[in-house]
Amino acid sequence: MSELSELYQEVILDHNKNPRNFREIENADRHADGNNPLCGDQIRVFVDLEGDLVKDVSFVGSGCAISKASASMMTQALKGKSKAEAEILFDEFHKMVTGQLDPEAGEHHLGKLRIFAGVLEFPARVKCASLSWHTVNAALHGEDEVSTE
Ligand code: ZN
Q: 21: CA distance to ligand 1 center in Å?
């Protein structure tokens, strides 16, 4: 097993067992529901904005380990970012899990999120990993529902 896939396993297990920002935000500025019927992942994302900044972001829901870990790490990555920065991250993440961006080459802002490049080996898992990102993107654009179908 490569170093990256070992790290992938470890991080997924950790975030699945102990998801960060796993809570509702009362009176959140934005929220959206995401649904991945292929796997049964369901998530609700909450976003609190301060001007252009993501002041707080959280999620609740149920799903597989990958969807939960991805949502957990997404909230960590987005807190304190501007909406424009969040959009860049969403774009880079999406490109990475669909094989259009090689996290080992070129410049990007993915940081720890690069471990999700591992889902490329499991095409059915790509939607699990990207569900939370599509959902937060919808929330930031004022839409309240997203489905990966
Ligand atoms: Zn899933």
A: 19
In a domain, 111, yes or no: yes
Question: By the 8 A CB rule, do 32 and 146 touch?
Answer: yes
Q: Domain residues for 48?
A: 3-144
pLDDT at 2: 64
127 CA from centroid of ligand 1 (Å): 7
| Residue ranges of the chain whose pLDDT lies below 70 | 1-4, 149
Name the domain count of the chain. 1
Classify residue 69: in a domain, yes or no. yes
Which tokens go with 102?
């090689």
Q: Tokens 């957990």 correspond to what residue?
A: 72
Question: What pLDDT score does 143 carry?
Answer: 86
Q: What are the phi and psi torsion angles at 2 (to 5°)?
A: -70, 165
- Say whether 105 sits in a helix, a strand or coil: coil
pLDDT of 8: 83
Ligand 1 ion local residues (Cβ < 5 A): 39, 41, 64, 67, 128
Q: What is the CATH number of the domain that holds 131?
A: 3.90.1010.10
- The confidence score (pLDDT) of residue 121 equals 85
Measured in Å, residue 123 CA sits from the centre of ligand 1 at 11
